[in-house]
Amino acid sequence: MSPDRPEEQDVETGLSRAGLRGREAELERLRALVEAVRDGEGGAIVLLLGEPGIGKTVLLQETISIARAHGFVVSHGRAEELHELAPLASLASGLLHGDPPLLSSTDFADLADHHDQRIWLVERLAQLIEERSAGTPVLIAVDDIQWADPLSRFALSVMPARLLSSPVLWLLTGREDPELYGQGPRTTTLPLRPLPDTALTELARDVLGGDVPEQVAELLDGAGGNPFLATEMLAGIAASGADGTEPPERLVLGVRDRLADLRPDTLHFLRIGSVLGRAFSLADAAALCGRPASGLSAEVDESIAAALLHDDGERLLFRHDLLRQAVYADLAPSVRRALHREAASRLVAAGRSSVDAVPHLLKSAEPGDMEAIGLLGAAATDVIAVMPDLAADLAVRALELVPPRAPMAYDVGERAIVALTRAGRYTQARDAGDALLARQPPLDVFARLQSVLGDTLWHFDDVHELTRRLTAALAAVTDPAIRARLTARLALARSRGSDLGAARETGERALAEAERAGDREARVLALWGLGEIALNAGDCAAAVEHHTVLSVFDTAFLPEEAVARIHMDDFDTVRRLLRTAGDPPLRPAMLIWAQGTLNMGLGRLDDADADLVTAERLEAELHVPGNLVNIRVNRGLLAMLRGDREAARAHLDVVRATVADRPNTGNHATHRYFEAVVADADGDHATAAELVRSAQRDHPFLRWRLLRPHVVQAVGIALRGGDRELAEDLAAQAAEHATRNPSVPTAQGTAAHAAGLVNADHGLLERSVRILLTGPRPLPLAAASADLGRALGTAGDPAATPALTRAHDIYAQAGADAEADRVRDDLEHATRRAGRRKRGPRPRPDQGWDALTASERKVARLIAAGHTNRSAAEALVVSPHTVNTHLASIFRKLAVRSRVHLARIVLAEGDPGTATAD
User: Fold this and answer.
1) Beta bridge pairs of residue 189
2) Of the ranges 62-66, 381-385, 873-877, which one carries the lowest mean pLDDT score?
3) What is the DSSP annotation of 670-731?
4) Which residues lie below 8 Å from residue 273, measured CB to CB, with a gap of 6+?
5) Could you tell me which residue, 102 or 796, shows the higher pLDDT?
6) 170-209 in b/e burial notation, b at 16+ Cβ within 10 A?
7) Are strands 279-280 and 186-191 parallel, antiparallel or unpaired?
8) What is residue 782's three-state secondary structure?
9) Which of 521, 611, 793, 897 has the lowest tally of Cβ within 10 angstroms?
10) What pTM was computed for the model?
11) 288 with 343: CB under 8 angstroms?
């Protein structure tokens, strides 16, 4: 929260910098935060907000001085209005130029080599800062955050949460709340309001000396409490006095009339500079003035003498952005536009990149400007991997500049569709494509546009419309490569249909066409489609074959190979795949999803939940929550296993809201099944059975890959709901799946388990247990053992006890407390110990050391021992993203803010445990 600052403060702080009058309270808050971070209280964020000239930069500079005096390493960067296309420029301006610099040029060069991997880049940057702050607190200050480039904004929204346990203070200034800080460390917002009269009087006394005449006090009312404007007025008074009936010209007209004292050439030079931005090079200004740089020395000297510019040795800077704005505002709009356009041309002619020229083009280009169209398109291509939203804006602007009916509109429009789709702006991408198609382009162009729109419609989950368009395009296409892409996309669309045989034929035809055309994109799409078709058909071996070839061909698809192998029970290969994923890994959210799927299969519920939390966070950070329903359904089912119905219902609420916005058939099925499990647990068995039946609205239950591990549970729900026909249908589907996958123990054992329940056949249940004992999944084995034990117990067979004991021990080891307690009750009944008090689920406490999961304790011990997040991840053979998730949970449960506090708690526990991977 940001409490209102009192009108007057009387805090003695020993102000060391002009312009701090009236900011004593804020300065004390900043000083206290610096000291808290220095003393090991963990990371913190400070936002200084207010209008231009209100004193943000002065407070930032004073805080930097305080931090340096307390031994901080300081990074001081500034965002600039015309540099928003340069990836990470706002942060890099400070990280590389401190004394000493926070990062070395070698470190930054390594980051630059992977600028197209946003998540990896930010994670690696956080690791470098974490290592740098291990022995020394760090202050990272960024001024004028409202102009930060998108990658810097992304980094600032993510890194504070990554570094919440490290002694890092983030100090950001801006004109309004940038809402960058997400769920990171504690945030202090300091809105800077206009100075009260008492502070303005003190400021006047500082500048003028002695008492402040009443006339001066009245004149200061015109500053509106803005300290910069007040200081400018006071400088004018100090220079020319305040006597006479009319106040001095500099006082009345302020900054604008100060320019009237300058020579025309100097004024022109300053106007050129204002177009180039707050900071500009003399060479750029000289080029735009049409004069050699050596011929501008008089203009530079006069501008510096007038306190309008400052020379930092590399660039010229307006002393305050208000000064630049005042100069810029004096230019007529048509003149501004012309100067910006000329600036873009001269920058390009001088060999500068499109990133330097495009900001000027955005302010000046007019329809038909071919050079601008080309430069905007090139810039969009350059930044699409790391700043897709910006790339989309640039590509759309390029399209807007294309003259009506110009043939190039189709090429430019195609790039806009791709960029908009990459940015997740699917509706806008579809509308742009449809507008181009409405122009009735040539047939091959029509086909090409439908091909790129195929990716857009795939994200809409509109399979019927996608199929209709692809079919129409295939009837028109003549280009072999485009034909192969269209056919491959059609195979993908049909992978979600009912005729998977026809889909497979389409995929095989697409692969053959791709190989004949030598088109990489078509080959990737065809292999992906064939893998999806095989997995949906339950042919796990074929799915592994296709996805393995695909991931070798394109490593971005490694998660798909991992998931396919999980369906084959090939867990050892999956572990090896995940451990050898590249650095930087491609599609990290999907990689973590695969890790979570593996941990669920292994019965490591706590680790699976942490993986799913991490995957959801990564998707949210990238603004592509395509897997949110599956993530929350899995987390909800895990919560039900633990007996935490409150958490399960919270997950269900998220699923309901998400399905409303993204109602594809797979989401419908998983949502309805989750509803069924909750209803069954609430005792509404008939409703639960009906919900399971509704999950088959579009396809059979076993068609849904996410639901396959739960078919036995679904059979139980059907039987409890009195729907024997549904139970028999589900058991038959499980048997068919086992027939297709004879080498998969889980498929064979699950089929026997389902049939044993439907037929009340002890022999089938015993067979299920024998088969599942040879497989890698403990939870299906526990479920089969529990049902076998119950059946044997009902028959009075003493063999019930070892079966139930095995089930209980597996559930307890996995943390499935609700199931463990159910089996315990059955075990007590079977051993005729009815006098023992029945115990309900024993939920883990919410707070304290006992609240930590086993993996969280391992992470806590490693961090307490001095490991960084990256080295802890390496020791545990997990992703640093997962360590971040564990650490955030540890800090919440232990109510600590820093690694220092965590180390004290670990030491107090006195239990070294183990801190290595299993």
Assistant:
1) 47
2) 873-877
3) HHHHHHHHHHHHTT-HHHHHHHHHHTTSSS-GGGSGGGGGGHHHHHHHHHHTT-HHHHHHHH
4) 280, 285, 303, 309, 316, 318, 324, 327
5) 796
6) bbbbbeebbebbbebbbbbebebebbbeebbbbbbeebee
7) unpaired
8) helix
9) 521
10) 0.81
11) yes
Query: Cβ(531)–Cβ(550) under 8 Å?
Result: yes
Q: Name the one residue in this structure whose structure tokens are 């053992």.
A: 785
Cα separation, 272 vs 434, whole angstroms: 42
Cis peptide before 778 (omega within 30 of 0): no
Note the pLDDT of residue 792: 94
Torsion of CA 350, 352, 358, 360, to 10 degrees: -50
Please tell me whether residue 742 adopts helix, strand or coil conformation: coil
User: Average pLDDT of 787-808?
Assistant: 93
Question: Residue 233 and residue 220: Cα distance in Å, rounded?
Answer: 7
Both tokens of residue 584? 């930087």
Question: Do residues 779 and 602 touch, judged by C-beta distance below 8 A?
Answer: no
Tens-digit pLDDT profile for residues 14-63: 444 556 888 889 999 999 999 999 988 888 999 999 988 888 999 999 99
CA distance 228 to 872: 49
Widest Cα–Cα separation across the chain: 113
Whether the CB-CB separation of 190 and 2 falls below 8 Å is answered with yes
Extract the tokens encoding 267.
């004024």
Q: Is 249 exposed, middle or buried (0-12, 13-18, 19+ CB in 10 A)?
A: middle
Helices (H), 179-226: 197-208, 214-220
**Nearest to residue 326, comparing CAs of 526, 101, 671, 52?**
52
Lookup: tokens for 892 = 């919440």
Give the CA radius of gyration of the chain: 33
Distance CA 530, CA 539 (A): 11
Q: Which of 593, 600, 694, 588 is nearest to 639 (CA)?
A: 600
**Structural tokens at position 369:** 């400007």
Q: Which amino acid is at 254?
A: G
Sheet holding 279-280, edge to edge: 279-280, 316-318, 309-311
Q: What is the dihedral of CA 372, 376, 379, 380, to 10 degrees?
A: -170
Q: How far is CA 583 from CA 36, 113, 615, in A?
A: 35, 12, 17
What is d(CA 909, CA 237) in angstroms, rounded to the nearest whole number?
67
Counting Cα atoms < 13 Å in the Cβ hemisphere of 33 gives: 26
What do you get for the CA distance between the two ends of the chain, in Å?
43
Q: For 698-740, what is each residue's pLDDT tens digit?
A: 889 899 999 999 999 999 999 999 999 999 999 999 999 999 9
Place of tokens 């996995």: 814
CA 85 to the chain's CA centroid: 19
Model confidence band, residue 246 (pLDDT cutoffs 50, 70, 90): very low
Q: Which two tokens stand for residue 696?
A: 């088959």
Q: Which residues sit opposite 187 in a β-bridge? A: 45
More confident residue, 14 or 446: 446
Kindly tell me if the per-residue pLDDT of 187 is higher than 90. Answer: no
Mean pLDDT of 419-426: 92
Q: At what angle do helices 443-460 and 480-494 cross, to 10 degrees?
A: 30
- Three-state secondary-structure class, residue 46: strand
Extended beta strands in 225-355, E state: 279-280, 309-311, 316-318
Query: What is the distance between the alpha carbons of residues 664 and 666, in angstroms, rounded to a whole number?
Result: 6
Q: What is the DSSP letter of 280?
A: E
Tokens 């549904």 locate to 726
From residue 396, alpha-carbon distances to 589, 603, 624 in Å are 28, 48, 20
Identify the band that residue 109 occupies on the pLDDT scale cut at 50, 70 and 90. Answer: low
Q: Rounded to 5 degrees, what angle do the CA atoms 364, 369, 374 make?
A: 100
What token pair was written down for 41? 């209280």
The DSSP element (H or E) to which 660 belongs, if any, is: helix 645-661
**Could you tell me if residue 424 is left (phi over 0), alpha (psi between -120 and 50 degrees) or otherwise beta?**
left
